[in-house]
Structures are given as structure tokens and as C-alpha cells.
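Course assignment 3, question 2. Fill in each field.
Student: A.L.
Task: Predict the tertiary structure for the chain below.
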Amino acid sequence: MSTRIRRGSATGKALILAALLTVAVPGAAYAKTVDVAVVTPGATMGPATPFTGISSHADCPDGLVSGGGADQAIGSDEMSNGNHVMGMVPSADGATEYTDAPGVVGTDATHWMAFGGSGSRSSEAFSTTPYAICLTSNLIRHTQVVMNKAQGPSAGLSSKLVTATCPAGTVLIGGGARTTPASVGSLKPVASFPTFDDAGHHFGSIAAGDGERDPDSWTAVGGIGGGRGEDNMTYAYAICSTDDIDLEHVSTTVRFTEVSGPNTASTGQTATAGCSRGEGRLVSGGAAISGGNVTTTDFSKATSGGPHLNGSFPSDAVGTPVGDGGADPSYWTAATHSGGSPSQGSYSDVWALCLDVQHGHKR
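Answer field:
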């Protein structure tokens, strides 16, 4: 039996109103959703010998990887100076890296790799824990990885900055950094942060500042101490949406914090930034140890050769890492270390990238 709705009935009026709203407000007929969860398999021990590296990976069982990080155990004695982050990057399978020709190097990545390296000192206490941020969204259904790379740094106490930029019509949702080889013990990424491919940010040399909206690029900075290496490489990775989304319904906001230190030898520092509920979900984050003022001037590395990263990871408000299966993290923490020498004028920097698909704005 068919049911007719009379124009004057309450049901008929409700359906007519719903139809008018659907026509008047495109996209209002369904809710745009973003769900975020943290995946980590725990620590991988090592490297236990000098001038070597280890790799570990976290894998998204659902959704796509939007970002990720690493956290290192370094021990409590002077040997702690030798452990440093060597890379935090998206991966197609959790075992291989995107290192070939620059450009769009992969789509719909679901894995995150973390790399730890040792300098002239190593310890059985060293380990690296990878963290993957897994994104499920009915708006961002596909992603692409853009990679850029450059040779260097090769001279002692120098750095190399590389920027990867998302294609036009897409949204940056995360990024990463990597340096190779591990056999050059003082080589490491000292910065990994969101930025803009525009003159105001010197095309990636100035980081995105607190409250800035819709960065389109990710910068990596490789730093080196007293070592040398003609084959040294620095890689930057940007994780971007594809161009099939409505940009009027998505926006990102950067949250940034910079704190002084570590300045004395064999000490560490942390910095934490977070997303408020009105800014959407935390989808990735970045970290640096720098010479300061990274959001207003070109990036400069800390003055000595030893400062390095020991972590960049999703956390709570006081910097405790989020455990496996943690849903909807709000904060990102950077863990830095001075190495074996004093490093006056060093700063620790952290970025949180917040994604909102309900209150986007015209660009």
C-alpha cells in the first residue's frame, strides 16, 4: 500500500523543509566526520653499537596515516648523549622508504616508520618507539605523499633545509623528516615542521606560527656536528589530501610553542602544544631543536654540533606519550637533548596541526 503525504500535514511540511535545506546548503545532508587514533607497537631496542641505526614501524589497521612520530629511551648516564632520532616518515608497507625521485611518491599510506641512530656512544638501554596517527574521515578518503630531498649537510656544524609542498587544491595534514646514512654519527634531522610555500615564509625556511591557518608544505632540516659525509641526504615529506575534496569545508590550524633550552651538556628539554576542541582534531605534529625564533626568521640550527631530537609524539597536556589505541589525542610533544657539549642559545620547538572539517572557510 502506498502512502501519500498531504501538503498540509506536519510530516509533509517537515520533508519539504528538509529538501529545501539540502538544496540551499550543499553538503548539509550528511555530517562530515574525522576520527583519529594512535597506534604504537612499543619499543624496538637499539642501536647497541656506535654509528649504527635501527628502524621500527607502526601500522594503521583502519584509515590512513596522517602523521606520526617517535620517542626514544636514552638511559640515564653519559651514554645518553649518543642516541638521536634519525627519521620519522610515512611508508607504503612499514618496511621501505620513499627515497627515489622527488614528487608524489605514494598514495593512501597506512604505515609510519621511525629511525633511531647512535653517535660515538651507544647503550643497551637505547630504544625507539614509533607512533602512527590513523585518520578515518568521510571527507578525506585518500591521501598522497610528496617527497623532496637534497644532498647534505656535508660540512661540519652545518645544516640542510628541504621543503615538500602539497599540490594545488589539496590540504596538508602531516609530514616527516629523514637523514641518511646512520654511519655518520653526528648527522640527524634537527627539525620537522609545517610551513608555507610563499614569500612571507621564505618558501619554507620560516616555520608556520601559532594560530596560522592552512599551511601547504612541510620542511625538514638535517644537521651535522663535527662529522663529514659526501653522501649525506636530507628528506622532507608532506602528507596531503587528494584534490577531490571541497576546500570550503576543511581547514587546518597550527599550534606552536617554543621554550628555552637545553643549554647545558647531557641534558634534555620538552615542549608541548595542543589543539582546542573548536579547532578540530590533532592529525600530526612537528618538532625542532633550534637557534630560536623559527616562526619569524629563517631556521637556524643550535650553535654546537650535539643538539638533537629524542622525540616527537602525540601526548597529553604534560607531555606523556599517548598509548596504543588512544583515541582523539589533543597534544603533541617534542623531546630534545643537548648532546655531550654545552649549547647556549638552544630552543625546543613543537607544532600541533589541527584539522576541522565542520567549519572550513573559503580560501
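Instructor remarks: Helices lie at 10-24. The longest helix spans residues 10-24.
Grade: pending
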